[in-house]
Design a protein that fits this description.
The complex is a heterotrimer of chains A (about 70), B (about 250) and C (about 350). Chain A has helices at about 15-20, 55; strands at about 5, 25-30, 40, 65. By secondary structure, chain A is α+β, with helices and mostly antiparallel strands. Chain A has a single domain, classed as Alpha-Beta Plaits. In chain A, the strands form two sheets. Chain A has a two-stranded antiparallel ribbon. In chain A, strands 2-3 form a two-stranded antiparallel ribbon. Chain B is of the alpha/beta class. In chain B, strands 3-2-4-5-7-6-8 form a seven-stranded mixed β-sheet, sandwiched between helices. In chain B, helix 8 (about 180-200) links the parallel strand 6 and strand 7 (about 205-210). Chains in contact: A-B, B-C. The interface between B and C is large, with 35 and 37 residues. Strand 3 (about 65) of chain B pairs parallel with strand 9 (about 210) of chain C, so a sheet runs across the interface.
């Protein structure tokens, strides 16, 4: 059991977390955040292993990981 | 469930001012995590540079001094000499450290100043809008090398870690990259070693961090991270160039 | 009464600084002030909780001062004209950061590499800012080795009092000459506590920043206004000068430092020839003693400014006199010291 929480307002939509995720379960939202970026969002959260690769790659420290 | 990854206490809540995908944010976080892990935040004084990270004082949750361009190692020297028990680090970019501040970094290393230097090498001047840095690669196009850097007239990209490693005063010198999770994990370990050297009063430590500048490289953040792998790492090999036996 | 000892000017500054509690010195060798750097090395390297560094450059030295001053200790650097030019970047930062420190300039002939003889060619640089931006140093101009001592000690107090860099503006002659000096017992001065701004690590408080910039012009303007208020206060409270024989003088010479010493000889020589002249010697060059000069111009209609330059302080004298009297100038440049005879000749020309 693991989950990630993405702070959408901190996210700048750089997509680095998408490439870091070994399970390919992060994608970009169609919505805009207040800064005008498409924030990252998780899909298929049940597949998340809590490896935190997304979080350690995020340049804006916008992802928290729970296990 | 328990939080296993979150914002380190040594970072403030202020959102970074860096461009999307810029590696500065990762470097900040790693330094902050190390300060947290050593429990030294309240005894730390950071020196931020002129360049994109001129605002680092807003992001690090510790006492901070802003230096003139290139002078951070001299200011850190003054701080450390008057407060030898404080943890003192500088955070400098490649224009700051390897161009205008070359004298200051060489001599701080040579004196074995007991400080830790975080050196961001992204092969370009970011804040001024993408001019050639001393670390810009041969052939790399920038605002001031519009036809590509020609080493014959513009000099060769400086390998700072190798250069400083020739100095006996330097205790720990390494080069790391932030382009993928495996490298980020290694970078963190290296930054931790660098601060350990300072905590042990063993002298000068520097971690050169290969970073991306998607905006001024004209690449997407994902492409920029790839560019670090394909272009920077071959010229700037990763690894430890000087290690005291005790932390090897 | 303390004991009088014979000391070279440059070394006397060093001893005074140490007695004033300065334990952090960062410098770079340059003639004609190198004895000061050497003196600090000899003393500070043997002291605990002290540092002496021969820096890689004057630029590095002033930035080491910046770092040390930020932690609240008394810090100093020294140099001579070309080296002071290099320090200007750091001095400008220190001025905005409002860090107390002392910078000694034992002036030599310029511009460029110039020579190594005494000069007063850095008056503009010292008093009008020197580096970029809108700021002032407090500038003290000693004219004897005793005054080098006293003013160096005062400089640290003034720096702390106003959180402002203070410059000792001497010259090669003062630095090299030997005179008997006394390190007097000084009354305890009440100085502001540094505890609320120094950088010491943020234990039990919020983190602090010493950041000499703000990209918001309205904030930076306010910051400049605050500096302006401080300079105004300094102008009101810290003016120092010496007035010699100004009553009934036919002419007043305005001179500082080494030149003022020579003028004192000129005054007595002139008296022997029946010419009655006086001297106003600014001891603070910033703040400039404009009021006394202006007031003197009510009674004395002729002024002669003598400098070891092509004419720098003369501009401030003219501003002070404000058209009420005639202001003449005589200067020697490039490291030449004017003789009493040639100054007296100039006096006669003016009368």
């Amino acid at each position: 059991m693991a989950k990630i929480v993405i702070d959408e307002e901190r996210c700048k939509g750089c997509e680095l977390c998408l490439t870091a995720c070994p399970k390919h379960i992060i994608t970009m939202s169609d919505n805009f955040n207040k800064k005008g970026y498409h924030p990252a969002k998780q899909i298929n959260p049940e597949e998340c292993s809590g490896c935190a690769f997304c979080a350690i790659t995020c340049p804006d420290v916008a992802i928290e990981v729970f296990k | 469930m328990k939080k296993v990854f979150g914002r380190p206490v040594s970072l403030t809540d202020v959102p970074f001012t860096y461009c999307p995908g810029c590696h500065h944010g990762i470097a900040h976080r790693l330094v902050a995590e190390v300060l947290d892990e050593f429990g030294v935040r309240e005894n730390t004084i950071g020196v931020c540079p002129v360049g994109c990270s001129v605002f680092a004082y807003l992001f690090f949750n510790c006492d901070m001094v802003c230096a003139a361009h290139g002078r951070a190692p001299a200011i850190a020297t003054g701080i450390k000499r008057s407060r030898p028990d404080s943890i003192v680090f500088t955070y400098q970019g490649d224009g700051d450290l390897a161009s205008i501040g070359t004298a200051e970094i060489v001599h701080a290393a040579n004196r074995g100043e007991n400080i830790t230097v975080i050196f961001i090498n992204n092969a370009i001047y970011g804040m001024t809008g993408g001019q050639m840095a001393p670390t810009t690669l041969a052939g790399q196009i920038t605002q001031t090398s519009p036809y590509g850097r020609d080493p014959k007239t513009m000099g060769y990209p400086i390998r700072v870690s190798e250069m400083l490693s020739t100095l006996k005063g330097a205790t720990y010198i390494s080069r790391v990259a932030l382009n993928k999770p495996a490298n980020i994990i290694k970078a963190k370990k290296s930054i931790k070693k660098a601060f350990q050297v300072q905590l042990d009063r063993k002298g000068f430590s520097l971690v050169e961090i290969l970073s991306s500048c998607p905006t001024n490289w004209g690449l997407s953040p994902v492409e920029a991270s790839k560019w670090v792998e394909e272009n920077m790492i071959p010229y700037y090999p990763l690894g430890e160039f000087r290690v005291p036996e005790e932390v090897a | 009464m303390g004991e009088k000892i014979l000391m070279k000017g440059n070394e006397a500054i060093g001893e005074a600084a140490i007695r004033a509690g300065c334990r952090y010195y960062f410098g770079y060798p340059i003639t004609p002030q190198s004895e000061l750097t050497a003196y600090m090395a000899k003393k500070l390297l043997k002291m605990k909780n002290a540092a002496f560094i021969q820096a890689e450059s004057e630029i590095a030295a002033i930035n080491m001062v910046y770092g040390a001053a930020a932690t609240g200790v008394r810090a100093m650097t020294s140099s001579s004209s070309p080296g002071i030019s290099l320090k200007q970047e750091g001095i400008s930062y220190i001025a905005l950061a409002e860090l107390p420190c002392v910078v000694v300039n034992m002036m030599r002939g310029g511009p460029g590499l110039g020579d190594i003889q005494p000069s007063q060619g850095d008056y503009f640089q010292a008093t009008k800012g020197g580096g970029h931006g809108d700021y002032h140093l407090i500038v003290l101009a000693p004219s004897s080795v005793q005054e080098l001592v006293d003013l160096t000690m005062d400089a640290f107090d003034l720096a702390d009092k106003y959180r402002n860099p203070v410059m000792i503006l001497g010259d090669g002659l003062l630095g090299q000459m030997m005179e008997a000096v006394e390190f007097k017992e000084r009354p305890k001065v009440d100085l502001p506590d540094k505890g609320d701004w120094i950088i010491t690590g943020c234990k039990d408080r919020e983190p602090r920043h010493i950041v000499p910039f703000d990209l918001d012009p309205s904030v930076l303007e306010k910051w400049n206004y605050n500096l302006g208020e401080k300079y105004k206060k300094i102008k009101e409270k810290e003016v120092r000068y010496e007035a010699v024989n100004t009553e009934n003088a036919e002419l007043i010479i305005v001179a500082y430092g080494t030149v003022a010493r020579i003028v004192k000889t000129v005054i007595s020589n002139a008296k022997e020839e029946g010419i009655n002249i006086g001297l106003i010697r600014p001891i603070t060059l910033f703040p400039f003693p404009e009021k006394v000069i202006n007031k003197t111009a009510d009674n004395v209609k002729k002024f002669l400014v003598v400098e070891m330059s092509l004419g720098q302080m003369v501009e401030d004298v003219k501003l002070s006199v404000n058209g009420k009297a005639e202001v003449n100038f005589y200067g020697r440049a490039g490291g030449i010291i004017p003789s009493p005879e040639e100054i007296l000749k100039e006096v006669k020309k003016c009368l």
